[in-house]
Amino acid sequence: MSTAVVTNGEVGSAQGFERYTFVERLVHWAVAFTFIALMLSGFALGYPRMAFLSGLFGGGQTMRFLHPWFGVVFTLGIVWMLVSWAREMRMNDGDRAWVRNMKTYAGSGHSGLDVGKYNAGQKGYYWFSIIFGLVLLVSGLPLWYPWMLGSGLNQIARLLHHAAFLLMIGGFIIHVYMSTVMFPGTLSAMTTGRVSRAWAAWHHPAWFRVQDRRKSGASR
Ligand code: HEM
Predict the structure, then answer these.
(1) CA 175 – ligand 1 centroid, Å
(2) 8 Å CB contact between 39 and 172
(3) Which residues, at least 6 apart from 142, have a Cβ–Cβ distance to it below 8 Å?
């Protein structure tokens, strides 16, 4: 195990480590905001009782026009994440041990394992978002251009689009809850780009040691 300072992981000092660059945060928030717009307009399009949400987008016609374009920006962000983060998100033996220890993690927020920059849950959410983000694109294109496929296949595309939509919303709720309420100190990673030493040592001890060595090497 690490020499980690054991705390509850809350943000402490102004010092700490950079976790995300400006570009990484910009792309993440573009994905997050377009996802929220897609979710709200998707509800209005898919559920007559929620049609009132179209008011947020200037009415039904404008919303119908905007929804696929939000999807285009969302997909560009997802593809950027795929190209830029895939290497760090590869699963390894440590991740398999984390999955076996998931009960402990769910109970205490700590798996007791020497986790690197991402734990297996985060890596899982990443691959989940990439796969279902691409399913949304592939199934959304024939809904945008209905002449692309026959009406039978269009029905299948509609079903796939809706299933991916609901699954992504479930994942999104868990992701937002975990990165804000469940683990205080995490949100700053995506706002200021930095996390405290205590947060890093508690949640990602192996990553903490690398950052700490790098920092003390630089200050020597
Ligand atoms: C308001 C909405 C959102 C909030 C508050 C939020 C917050 C965060 C935070 C704080 C992190 C850093 C976690 C860390 O480094 O330990 C993060 C990472 C990440 N976010 Fe989000 N996020 C949101 C929406 C989304 C959406 C819609 C997606 C994709 C569809 C997404 C995908 C990711 C991925 C792949 C990571 C890196 C791996 C991970 O931590 O799971 N986020 N997010």
Answers:
(1) 6
(2) yes
(3) 148, 149, 153, 154, 157
Task: Pick the catalytic residue from 67, 161, 175, 204.
Answer: 175
Q: Which two tokens stand for residue 109?
A: 């927020």
Q: How many residues does the chain have?
A: 220
For ligand 1, say whether the CB of 80 is within 6 Å of any of its atoms: no
Which residue in the block uniquely carries the two structure tokens 């790098």?
214
Kindly report the CATH number that applies to the domain delimited by 19-102+116-219. 1.20.950.20
Is 187 close to ligand 1, i.e. is its CB under 6 Å away? yes
Atom 6 of ligand 1, residue of closest alpha carbon = 176
Q: Are 121 and 105 in contact (CB under 8 A)?
A: yes
The predicted-structure confidence for 114-146, as pLDDT tens digits, reads as follows: 999 999 999 999 999 999 999 999 999 999 998
Question: How large is the angle between the packed helices 151-177 and 22-46, nearest 10 degrees?
Answer: 130
User: Ligand 1 atom closest to Cα of 89?
Assistant: 38
Identity of the residue numbered 189: A
Q: pTM of the prediction?
A: 0.90
* Domain locations in the chain as residue ranges: 19-102+116-219
User: How much is the pLDDT for 220?
Assistant: 62
Distance CA 102, CA 90 (A): 18
Residue 28 Cα to ligand 1 midpoint, Å, equals 7
Tokens of 10: 């809350």
Residue 161 falls in the annotated catalytic set: no
Q: Give the largest Cα separation in the chain, rounded.
A: 68
